[in-house]
């Protein structure tokens, strides 16, 4: 289900361009597409992104309501990504062509340091629901370790608290691909005896690889891709 939603969004990513390229459909003129139809197209992308992302979170909640034989021994765990899973980077991308411009890491980091990213409301709700069930929450992010205090402050500002771990990328992780780095972080948890019931992330690199989880959920993100 979530996968299908993602595919739909992958198609609509044409609208906002590809993060890797300095290319933006908004600046292309075409015989078949006038400005107003483009505007409608992009507006429908915006609405669909929210709807798809909410539907994916509904799936998560539905799954959790019946899935897991939680042991309540403090070893039940759930993993979240941070960016575009718990916090939205859309305000940043909105100012930068929705991915139509090549990402400027310096200005993106400066934005993250302001700790102003808003919560994705449906994720915030689920975060607290699963925490209230006694499940330990681990955040595994590909943000750099140097952004730790800004990230913690941002999470608090957005209404998140009570997680059990926040893993960020240190210098020693830099040689690894994101997927490997995230797998290693999960391996550390399973070694400590945690049962990972689920992962919610917006990147395939957050949910692929071993050790896996009871079930994984991929949220839409058509602005960027991390491998
Ligand atoms: C958004 O969803 C509607 C209804 O499902 C669909 O008709 C429309 O084409 C979608 N917009 C885009 C940009 O995919
Ligand atoms: C990236 O952003 C920084 C800070 O806003 C700016 O000084 C720099 O020139 C930008 N780099 C590129 C390649 O645009």
TrEMBL record:
<feature type="signal peptide">
    <location>
        <begin position="1"/>
        <end position="21"/>
    </location>
</feature>
<comment type="function">
    <text>May function as somatic storage protein during early seedling development.</text>
</comment>
<dbReference type="InterPro" id="IPR023214">
    <property type="entry name" value="HAD_sf"/>
</dbReference>
<keyword id="KW-0758">Storage protein</keyword>
<dbReference type="Pfam" id="PF03767">
    <property type="entry name" value="Acid_phosphat_B"/>
</dbReference>
<dbReference type="InterPro" id="IPR005519">
    <property type="entry name" value="Acid_phosphat_B-like"/>
</dbReference>
<keyword id="KW-0325">Glycoprotein</keyword>
<keyword id="KW-0732">Signal</keyword>
<protein>
    <submittedName>
        <fullName>ACID PHOSPHATASE-LIKE PROTEIN</fullName>
    </submittedName>
</protein>
<dbReference type="GO" id="GO:0045735">
    <property type="term" value="F:nutrient reservoir activity"/>
</dbReference>
<dbReference type="InterPro" id="IPR036412">
    <property type="entry name" value="HAD-like_sf"/>
</dbReference>
<comment type="similarity">
    <text>Belongs to the APS1/VSP family.</text>
</comment>
<dbReference type="InterPro" id="IPR014403">
    <property type="entry name" value="APS1/VSP"/>
</dbReference>
